[in-house]
Design a protein that fits this description.
CATH class of one domain: Mainly Alpha
Number of helices: 14
Enzyme class: oxidoreductase
Family: Belongs to the peroxidase family. Ascorbate peroxidase subfamily.
Subcellular location: Secreted
Strand order of the largest sheet: 1-2
Radius of gyration: 23 Å
Protein name: Peroxidase
Distance between the termini: 23 Å
Largest sheet: 2 strands, antiparallel
Function: Removal of H(2)O(2), oxidation of toxic reductants, biosynthesis and degradation of lignin, suberization, auxin catabolism, response to environmental stresses such as wounding, pathogen attack and oxidative stress.
Helix content: 40-55%
CATH topology of one domain: Peroxidase, domain 2
Structural class: mainly alpha
């Protein structure tokens, strides 16, 4: 944090030649300590979060790399203009990173001696993408301000810029994360919600990250952009509960269209929009679709059918895009502050795919 944020008090302590009692010493030290803490409490740049990120703040790179925001936004904009789907892919990278070991860019590491990459986990294999865009951003930032901007912060900024480019809300991204020195494929397999998880399981996985039901429903609303593979929802079409029948909560006409491109076998990688109305637009049609049984994934539709509390939120967001946007900003900032590495922990990687 820039030293200018700290305003040290003048003449707090008495002259060294002035005799003081022990009680006077303690009083002086206490006052001095409180005065040193006061700027932290009042400074608008220091955002205190309840999930282990008291020293992340949006202006972190204002002096050390003033063009950081511009560089990230420019490269993300170029990538999304080339392929609209990339906006959802970059947003998803941030999610899948934060749910494993916190928001520390562990998802970007390739396998190497001592590291088994999270890219090979069940939720990520043949699915997670956008690494080349992150590489391009990191390369540009290393030229502009070497050893300064972390890969974890790049993921957070790219997620925000992708959302805005798709028509979603803007938010100030708290920054100052550092990069992990390892990955956890076990954590990736265990912690990331799966398309066929029950609602209680999904709630538990979010709760373990410090995220509540409001955050859950809101953040899954990011499925308003992007695509999912046939293998992620096939069971809904043919054998939802093991009795050979489709999911009764799935609209029949919608199911028929899905079956045309997602057969009982084969076509595992065939892609379908998670919001068939406006797959490239960050809006509230995802929630509107759930109201009529046209959520693509079981983990989507279950938000409407699984509990009264999640149902009320789906109905609220379907009726009021502004309410969805406002809460999305709060929830994704909260998610972005899951146990980040700060201070002297971790490192600033030169290459996001490997430790220094």
């Amino acid at each position: 944090m820039p030293s200018s944020l700290y305003k040290y008090p003048k003449q707090v302590c008495s002259s060294p030649s002035t005799p003081k009692t022990l009680e006077q010493d303690m009083a002086v030290y206490s006052i001095n300590f409180l005065l040193l803490l006061l700027p932290l409490a009042l400074s608008p740049l220091c955002l205190a979060f309840p999930h282990g990120a008291p020293f992340l703040y949006p202006q972190f790179y204002d002096h050390s790399c003033p063009k950081a925001h511009q560089i990230v936004q420019s490269i993300v904009a170029k990538a999304v203009a080339k392929e609209a789907r990339m906006a959802a892919s970059l947003l998803r990278l941030h999610f899948h990173d934060c749910f494993v070991k916190g928001c520390d860019a562990s998802i970007l590491l390739d396998s190497s001696q001592g590291i088994v990459s999270e890219k090979g986990s069940i939720p990520n294999r043949n699915s997670i993408r956008g690494f080349e865009v992150i590489d391009e951003i990191k390369s540009a930032l290393e030229k502009e301000c070497p050893r300064t901007v972390s890969c974890a912060d790049i993921l957070a900024l790219a997620a925000r810029d992708s959302t805005v480019l798709a028509g979603g809300p803007f938010w100030e991204v708290p920054l100052g994360r550092r990069d992990s020195l390892g990955a956890s494929i076990q954590g990736s397999n265990r912690n990331i919600p799966a398309p066929n998880n029950t609602l209680p399981t999904i709630i538990t996985k979010f709760k373990l990250q410090g995220l509540d039901i409001v955050d859950l429903v809101t953040l899954l609303g990011s499925h308003t952009i992007g695509f999912s593979r046939c293998t992620s929802f096939r069971q809904r079409l043919y054998n939802q509960t093991g009795n050979g029948l489709p999911d009764f909560t799935l609209d029949g006409g919608y199911a028929a269209r899905l079956r045309a491109g997602c057969p009982r076998s084969g076509g595992d990688q065939n892609l379908f929009p998670t919001d068939f109305v406006s797959p490239a637009r960050f809006d509230n049609f995802y929630f509107k679709n759930l109201l009529v049984g046209k959520g693509l994934l079981s983990s989507d539709e279950i938000l409407f059918t699984g509990s009264p509390e999640t149902r009320r939120l789906v109905e609220l967001y379907a009726a009021d895009a502004g309410a969805f946007f406002a809460q999305f900003v709060k929830s994704i900032v909260k998610m972005g502050n899951i146990t980040p590495l700060t201070g002297s922990k971790g490192e600033i990687r030169y290459n996001c795919r490997k430790i220094n």
